[in-house]
Amino acid sequence: MDKFDMDEKHIHDMFSKIKVDPSKLAKQVKNRLYEGSSKRPARHRKRWTKSIIAAIVLSFVLVTSATAASLGNFNWFMERFNPDFGKIVEPVGVYSEDEGIRMEVIGAQKYDNRAIVYLSLQDRSGQNRLTEQTDFRDGFNVKMHSQTKEGAKGGDEVLSSYLSWQQKMLYFDKDTNTIYYEFNITVDPNTPSSDLLELGSFLVYFNEKAYRDEPLSVSLKGIEDADTIPIEQAEIFGGSNVPSDLSSLTEALMPGDYASMPHGEKDQWVSNIGIIDGKLHVQIGKIFNKEFSPSDAMLSLKGPDGNVISYDYSLVFLSDKKNNLLNDYDDAKYKYEEFVFPVNSENLSHYTLYYTGSVYSGVEGQWKVAVNTRDTTANVRTWKNDISVENQLFEYITLSPLGLQVIGTYEGENSMVSDMLLQIETVDGIIPLEGGGGSQNPDKHTFNSSWNTKAPLDITKVKAIIINGTRIQVK
After folding, report:
1. What CA–CA distance (Å, rounded) separates 218 from 261?
2. Out of the domains of life, which is the source (predicted)?
């Protein structure tokens, strides 16, 4: 046997030693095909060489190793935390990493327009930026891939017009700076969807540091009339307790850089302090529309007797980078809020200004994972009967292991469905449901609403749905 034959035999032996579970490997291959698929021109086939065959062997080893690692992480997670819905999800093991933060979906399952997801966040930069307060907040999003419809382009992505979720932190591992979450997600029931579920975020909040009644490092002794600028009604963007007659407000403090805030962040500052028409005006400036920065300030004034003096009103202005006031948002660079206190300058030396607010830290990035779950149609039941309960018409009801979802119409000015008590009657007893969110269209008098279970619901045992005491038998 020559050397070529010996190498072929060695490669054959390597193939023989590989043990692959096709049921688990199929999902990994499917996910990778989805992530990397693109149209490529056809190429002429060439005879496989030894190096190509060896590379394929290595690829199989890497894929099966990744599959085993994913399954091991899933099993470890389920044994370690025993989550409420762990028995109805399947292993996923896909992740996205950006800005040193890895978001990994450990397990998930989707039922119609609802999903249960177990995911983790880990700071892999070594900076240990994640805390028990870490959150996605308004950066979290869910994309549903629409089913193919006649006359429509198949596979179009639809950003859900209605999205709600309940987020539970299961554990925060300080040693690895990893947080484990449970997400119970509900999207618009009018949004058609397939089994592909895409989760992502463009924000990760790390921490919030709160300040309450912190004294401002400014002395009110000797405060005099300040330089002002004229203002117009169109330049007032809001505020608190704003007077109904805006025409009486004709001037404001000139923006400046009077002092720093108690938190010391450069994104927010005391812009100016002065007396206008016998009242104390305090102006706070901040960079406009910056994602991770101090919140809007809340100011109070305390006298020598410790009594708190609230401001009469506050006004909000926007300016460009040269501090010219604006009447729209287009060129806004800075935001100013001016607080007006009903005190005169003669007694200010013994008064102190106090600040209340928060400072947020976090990072912007792109985290996105696609989860292709199995078909769960058999575990979802729907009814299209019109069921009227207290002027709320339940037109379309969906029941799944995660709870109940309803589309309907209502009479009157507002839908009262969110205040209704829903229960599920099963062969084992009554299961109360918790409100999960919803929305309504006042023009069309339509609503959609959802209720959640605390543990997976076996829909084969359901006998009836009870709405505010009205029992609706399930056949």
Report:
1. 10
2. Bacteria
